[in-house]
Amino acid sequence: MQESYLEKKSQSPLYMQLMTRLKNDIEAGVYPAGARIPSEQVLCDTYGVSRVTVRKAMLDLVQEGLLIRRQGKGTFVADEKIRRDLSAITSFTLACAQRGHQAGSRFISVQTDDASSEDCARLELPEGSRLIEITRLRLCDGEPVMLEINRYPARYDFLLPNPEAASQYACLKENGVIPTSAVHDISLTHATPFVSKHLHTEVGEALLLLDELVFNQHGEPLHLSRQWIRGDKFTFRI
Question: What is the pLDDT of residue 235?
């Protein structure tokens, strides 16, 4: 990297100038997705600034989601995130396609289970009802992004012959059921051994947790969903 000192007499703070330079380099492909950013000392020497300035610029870029820090390895350009608009019902398959990526699915398990009192209340079912529970790993370009558990009332048993279908929503629509709205609860959680095994993360790593109650075209509860999501791969628009 050639020396490219910043304008110390500029009204723009040095750390913001450095952020702009790095953003431009990322957009120009100098540092493609997954590339390692030079060390603090290299950046100091290249741009003629202090470590404090470099750390401030890098921290802000991490907070913006453009860079990601990996313990003991350095700072890297973040991969492009899949964006899902929560203001509309969009399947994972469609969300990937809209960003030019290939969605995939890995079936983990399917079972029928007794609905809890909370399940019955949320899905407006009588006590003693049964649910279909389908657990899948969702992939983007072959890489694990999301672990999801969907719980449907037993009347949607047409999903059972092909629980590994790439899009459950496509199967629902083929049977005249259209997901149209949802109530979302987003929180921060940490990977359990089961979740980390499938998402290829460290146990205890921070993840997004999305709980949903989805409704059909008649305003009736359709299913419950719980999704553990890698925040470095996925983002939401609310």
Answer: 65
Give the total number of structural domains in the chain.
2
SS3 215: strand
Distance CA 157, CA 71 (A): 45
Residue 28 phi/psi, 5-degree rounding, is -80, -5
In the numeric block, which tokens belong to residue 55? 């750390």
| Selection from 23-37, 85-99, 163-177, 195-209 with the highest mean pLDDT | 195-209
Q: Which pLDDT score is estimated for 164?
A: 67
Q: At which of 77, 107, 131 does a domain end?
A: 77
Alpha-carbon span 74 to 63, nearest angstrom: 16
How far are the Cα atoms of 9, 63, 144 from residue 204, in angstroms, in the given order?
A: 45, 20, 17
Same domain, 114 and 218: yes
Task: Specify whether 113 is located in the same domain as 61.
Answer: no
DSSP string, 122-191: HHT--TT-EEEEEEEEEEETTEEEEEEEEEEEGGGGGGTT-TT-S-HHHHHHHTT--EEEEEEEEEEEE-
Pair (104, 73) in one structural domain: no
* Dist CA 54 CA 75 (whole Å): 12
Q: Please check whether residues 98 and 71 belong to one and the same domain.
A: no
Q: How far is residue 55's CA from residue 72's CA, in Å, rounded to a whole number?
A: 16
- pLDDT above 80 for 219: yes
Query: What residues make up the domain containing 145?
Result: 82-237
Name the residue with tokens 């996925």.
234
Q: What Rg value do the Cα atoms of the chain yield, rounded?
A: 22
Query: 202: exposed, middle or buried (C-beta count within 10 Å: 0-12, 13-18, 19+)?
Result: exposed
